[in-house]
Amino acid sequence: xxxxxxxxxxxxxxxxxxxxxxNRFELNKNLAQPLYMxxxxxLQTLIESHEFDQAKPLxxxxxxxxxxxxxxxxxxxxxxxxxxxxxxxxxxxxxxxxK
Length: 99
Description:
Helix content is 35%, strand content 14%. It is α+β, with helices and mostly antiparallel strands.
């Protein structure tokens, strides 16, 4: 089981994306629920509790998949699910943003 933490640091200038750190999310490959859905639900909780800065993109797909040890398509599916459900929006060439 891998976990990661989203850190919302509005004063950080070093990265265009919001930072992530391993220790917040729990993804369990042994559950019947697909990994993308587990990730989407946990991201949804953070979005709804306003833990993301809406002015900065969510962590990049590349950063998430590397930190979590899951595929790019799993992270993309989670972000796409959130987009279809109105929780994030996508800006071409910039990434996904919380609404």
